[in-house]
Amino acid sequence: MILTPDVILLFVSASVALALAPGPDNIFVLTQSALFGRASGFAVIFGLLTGVMVHTLLVAIGVAVIFQTSALAFTALKLAGAGYLIYLAWQAFRSGTTRIGGSGHATLSLRKLYLRGVIMNITNPKVAIFFLAFLPQFADPARGSVTLQILIFGALFAVSALLVFGCVAWGAAYIGAWLGQSPRAQVVLNRIAGVVFLGLAFRLVMAER
After folding, report:
1. Which pTM value belongs to this model?
2. Phi and psi at residue 127, in whole multiples of 5°?
3. In terms of C-beta density within 10 A (0-12 exposed, 13-18 middle, 19 or more buried), how is residue 167 classed?
4. Would you say 7 and 135 are in contact if contact means Cβ atoms under 8 Å apart?
5. Is the dihedral of CA 115, 120, 124, 130 positive or negative?
6. pLDDT tens across 46-91, in order?
């Protein structure tokens, strides 16, 4: 099975454009990087990308179609995701003047931040349905195993997202370090993060198949 350079270039270009578009994932990376620093931002990114590969695997083996055809499965997963986002909002609101990225040290372990990214991504059924529609467009049975092609495309998407989200994390960490010098700014940034989480939760609850 061979993926020609033109197919790879087309897919990567589309993936980068999608990663650049404002959405829950890059907003999540931005807020977490600003709050906890660059290393923490990358921990979140790798969590999100782990979720991407989980969704890719579900598409490759045909499980993702369940979320497209079953209203119950779709609703259950999105409510679980919304509930987790509300929990993160509650944590952000109660953080008060918790030290943010300016200290250079995260107030949460990298493992916890990584798991935040994983949960954030895999509990969003819209991602599964999006991948179900997006990845197969670039697969061609004439090139060999469609399942293998989808897995490769998922990996390429993850690399493309890493490049974009990495830039977001890098920039947001500088902003967080600057704001971290002011206790008032720390409170404001935590409140903004809480509002963002609530907004993402509302958006997920309102999502339809």
Report:
1. 0.80
2. -65, -45
3. middle
4. no
5. negative
6. 999 999 999 999 998 887 777 777 888 888 888 888 888 898 888 7
